[in-house]
Design goal:
The chain has 373 residues and is α+β, with helices and mostly antiparallel strands. The chain is built from 13 helices and twelve strands.
Length: 373
């Protein structure tokens, strides 16, 4: 289960989502590590390997699911110890099955639990022994560590599911010595699943709360530019802060949003005027970077940039249309000068991209006639 353990790695500027779990690497000592699992099917265990390569590491014992009595172990930066009366909760096959499930979950694909519940639905719709056998096979394909939680029901655990796939007169996989499933217990399991299906089919039960969780439009990359020139149709270049579009704030007109940002960031009014008068944004930045900032600038800069972007697109409707045309796409904004404002191949915070998305959303709100607060 992924839970809140979310991470990523960057490949060619693309974030590959992932998660992690503990594991032991046996390399002389047993080393407790974070085993990283990524959506593209690669696994990080001191190196990136495929699932098949990981299975080989399990087979050779380089990744260990058991440790012998008295074995030495270490956790980097924490300490060393020896095992006494070790108990183990997983096997190589189970670990691989859990990893395959995790990769499915990271890709929003049905995992073994979802496939089992789908097979159960087929059986409940057509209660043949053939369909029951398929449901039982799907249930046994769930890693043992996950079967207990397959229904997501903390009160009932999975006994109804085990009863359903065993059938009247059958036995569950877990307790071969227990009595065969009685008809009364089987009827209780059927009633549970019928009620579960009824709840799922209630109006609105499966509707998303408020639309898609991720953008439907492809990500838009806004690369850094060094010598932007004003043109009749700038395309997405017009979304760059350094694009030369006059911007009037108060009684002053600035050659670009970047000029305005740097001019208003400095504490010295004379320097601010000099920055405003520069020919290029590079000259503006060069004058500003070593100068003292306004008091509180670091804490206020995102709010100021938000106001700046709103003004830019209000004063330049043609550029506003370019921004609106990006629909709901994630905007990846590169800024070689700042890991705060730029994404920079996944190494920065992309605040300009985020604020452009905010201003775009506000414009969509106004265009749709949705009242603001």
């Amino acid at each position: 289960m992924i839970g809140n353990r979310i991470t990523h790695r960057v490949v060619d500027g693309v974030h590959i989502p992932g998660t992690w779990r503990p594991a032991f690497i046996h390399n002389g000592h047993h080393h407790l590590i974070d085993l990283f699992i990524y959506a593209d099917g690669l696994i990080g265990c001191w190196e990136l390997v495929t699932v098949e390569e990981f299975e080989e590491k399990l087979r050779t014992g380089w990744v260990a699911t058991t440790v012998p009595e008295g074995a030495a172990a270490a956790a980097n930066g924490l300490g060393e110890w020896k095992f006494s009366e070790p108990r183990h909760w997983t096997t190589p096959d189970q670990l691989v099955a859990e990893i395959r499930d995790t990769i499915d979950q990271l890709n929003d694909r049905p995992d073994s639990t979802a496939r089992c519940l789908a097979a159960d639905d087929v059986f409940l719709a057509d209660r043949t022994e053939e369909n029951r056998a398929a449901a039982r096979t799907a249930f046994l394909a769930i890693p043992k560590s996950q079967r207990h939680w397959a229904l997501g029901d903390l009160d009932n655990k999975a006994w109804q599911l085990r009863t359903l796939v065993a059938g009247p007169g059958g036995r569950t996989y877990l307790f071969p010595r227990e009595p065969a499933v009685a008809q009364e217990r089987y009827d209780q399991a059927l009633a549970y699943f019928e009620e579960r299906a009824r709840r799922k089919d209630e109006p609105g039960a499966r509707l998303p709360a408020d639309g898609p969780a991720v953008p439907y439009a492809p990500t838009v990359h806004l690369p850094h530019t060094f010598k932007p020139e004003r043109m009749a149709d700038p395309g997405r270049l017009g979304l760059r802060n350094e694009y030369p579009g006059p911007l009037t704030l108060g009684k002053t007109t600035y050659p670009s949003a970047t000029h305005a940002y740097w001019a208003l960031s400095v504490a010295d009014p004379e320097l601010s005027a000099a920055i405003t008068a520069t020919d290029t944004y590079l000259q503006a930045r060069r004058l500003a970077v070593t100068a003292p900032r306004r008091e509180g600038w670091e804490q206020a800069r995102t709010a100021f940039m938000t106001s700046l972007l709103r003004a830019k697109y209000e004063q330049h409707p043609e550029l506003a249309e370019i921004l609106l045309a990006t629909d709901d796409a994630t905007l990846v904004y590169d800024d070689f000068d700042s890991a705060f404002w730029g994404d920079n191949a996944g190494q920065g915070r992309n605040w300009t991209g985020r604020l452009l998305e905010l201003v775009r959303s506000e414009m969509h709100m106004r265009r749709a006639g949705i009242p603001g607060l």
